[in-house]
Amino acid sequence: MVRRRQPLGKAVRLHRCRRSRRAYTSTLADAAARPADHDGELAESDRGYAVHGDACRFRRRKSDLDDECRFASRWIDARAGSSTFTVRVDSGGHSASKQLGLVVVDKLTASSPADQTWEVKRPLQIAINAKGGTPGYSWKVTGTLPENTGFIGNQGNGSTSYLRGVPAQAGTFPIVLTVTDADGGSAEVRVTLTVAPKLQIRTFSVGRAQVGKRYRLALASAGGVGATSWTLAVGSLPAGVKLNADTGVISGKPRRSGTFRFTIVGTDALEAKAAMTYSLRVRRR
After folding, report:
1. By three-state DSSP, how is residue 70 classified?
2. In the CATH scheme, what is the homologous superfamily, with its name and number, of domain 200-283?
3. Of 83, 88, 80, nearest to 20 (Cα)?
4. 21 with 76: CB under 8 angstroms?
5. pLDDT in tens, 131-157
6. pTM for this model (two decimals)
7. HSE-up (13 A, CA, CB side) for residue 145
8. Most CB contacts within 10 A, which of 32, 124, 144, 186?
């Protein structure tokens, strides 16, 4: 049996000459483009078709046919899987036949997760997946990646490749990844990498407080991804003063005087952290 791989989505055409009864097959890249008239005379510009496989191959031109010879043909939509059919040729009282196999593979596709926002100095990894077609795959990336990131393709049979690294550059980076299978079929996927600046705490001074008088300070951050949560990592606040972990507001009425040294850490949605150490002086009334 002769086998031939054919990409999914191509149509197979079976032909038979009404006079000579010769039969053969051909394919069309897009089944939707098939002609409305499936029967009729072989066109002047048509160079003929050949049976798939090394055996039972022949071509006929219009010049080889007389005026009475017409071709009847029909289309079969190819779906993923394998099938067999027999081609028979009758000529001059002799006949020959050959059983052929047609293996249809799924259409080659490439996919990636939904676009995400990453961050300077935080690990980045995006998996790009290919399926269908004929393994193995090869990859090509078009576009500019952030500094300190790269494309890792051809892992194993290449069905999964990665964008990976620790970006050192903020910005928006549109790229196109193209995968090609062993039969030369290709598919592409577009990915936009958005890299946010590194998380920073932008409050540099906490001012002064007074015993028994209300104190309030809202910590501010810049960069990072998502909301910032706040923690008291080192030291302590004056008695009567607390830190709101969600809003970053330090507030309350100090109950005793003194100098209080403490470190605040901000953490964003990607677990990036920024720290700042402060010294708060509380005066007596």
Report:
1. coil
2. Immunoglobulins (2.60.40.10)
3. 88
4. no
5. 888 888 888 889 999 999 998 876 555
6. 0.63
7. 20
8. 124
